Amino acid sequence: MSYLQLDLQYFSQEKTEQATPKKRRESRTKGQVAKSGDVNTAIILLLVFLFLWMIGPYMFDIMLKIYIISFRDFIHYDVTTENTQQVMSSLSIQAAQIVAPILLVAMVSGVAANYLQIGFLFSTDPLLMKLERINPLQGFKRIYSMRAIVELIKSILKISLVGFVTFLVLWMNREKLILLSHATVEQALMIIGKLTIQMGLAASVLLIFLAILDYMYQKFDFEKSIRMSKQDLKDEYKKMEGDPLIKSRIKEKQRQMAMQRMMQEVPKADVIITNPTHYAIALKYDDDKMDAPIVVAKGVDYIALKIREIAKHNDIFTIENRPLARSLYDQTEIGDMVPESLFKAVAEVLAYVYRLKKLV
What b/e readout covers 274-309, taking b as 16+ CB neighbours within 10 angstroms? Predict the structure, then answer.
């Protein structure tokens, strides 16, 4: 019987997990968001053609004015530098009156479309120079990737459907187009303008529908691209919580510093109560500042030995009281006042110590 060996590490690298909030924030900071360019195009076209529909009469009047002035006045001007400048200046101002509002609506529409999709986002990361962008191999992969195939299908679909819709609008108005040659200039401009707006609005509505589908696909593709492997989740957790080895070293350093501060308080104690070897508790009492004695240091075994050594070096009285030492160790922490239940026993010890100090 033969056995197939599997490398479990390979499975841990598969990106099957949903992205964490931290991963999403990092992706957004880099400008990586779910966004569809078709949404921008569809909204801009729809709003621009709606705007054209509303200000059509205004634009028609200006265009007719340009037509009349050109063939009534400008055509009789002599070709001189001064006349050319006057004609160009006049036509530029009138053309700007038509084009400027449309450009403004298009700009506002583009900003609004982006804001609807991703909110406010400013990132310079996509503008940075990256060598992989000019890597031929990476470029070949992008060209022949599944995403490129999807984009190709989308483009063909959009061109086909938009072409069909515009053709349908023209076909429904074919009688007007046939009689266009018999219409006056004013009538021809009105007919062409109306047909243009009808085709634009019809194509825009169709593109809105396609843009919704594309946004859903872009959302799905984005979620897939930022998926994380189980190892990625572990690494992120380590970064957020800190490496266990480093954390243990920090805690050890903190314990050492706390121990050092505690040992510095031992010389200020009034008495050390011991077990006699396993426990040691250092007590301090100031009648003017404290309501009850406080524990300034405590420890067992090695720490208790260090407390006794410091106390001996600083001539601090050491009293052996096994039950009291054990009770104080179990019921108090460093900086705590002595519990009320132990007041009497501690008071007797302190009174004994004070008497010894007087004798000394």
Answer: bbeeebbbbbbbeeeeeeebbbbbbbeeebbebbbe
Q: How far apart (Å, rounded) are the C-alpha atoms in residues 153 and 144? A: 13
Alpha-carbon distance 233 to 18, whole Å? 10
Domains of the chain by start residue, with CATH: 31-127+162-220 (no CATH), 263-359 (3.40.1690.10)
Separation CA 20–CA 68 (nearest Å): 65
272: burial class by Cβ within 10 Å (0-12, 13-18, 19+)?
buried
Task: Give the tokens for residue 97.
Answer: 């009156």
Q: Cis before residue 276, ω within 30 degrees of 0?
A: yes
pTM of the model: 0.54
Ordered alpha helix ranges (H), 135-286: 136-143, 146-172, 174-178, 185-225, 230-241, 244-265
Q: What is the pLDDT of residues 178-223, one digit of tens each?
A: 888 788 877 887 888 888 888 988 998 888 888 888 888 888 888 8
Q: Which residues contact 293 (CB under 8 A, 6 or more apart)?
A: 270, 283, 284, 285, 337, 338, 346, 350
pLDDT tens readout for residues 39-60? 888 899 899 989 888 887 888 7
254: left (phi over 0), alpha (psi -120 to 50) or beta: alpha
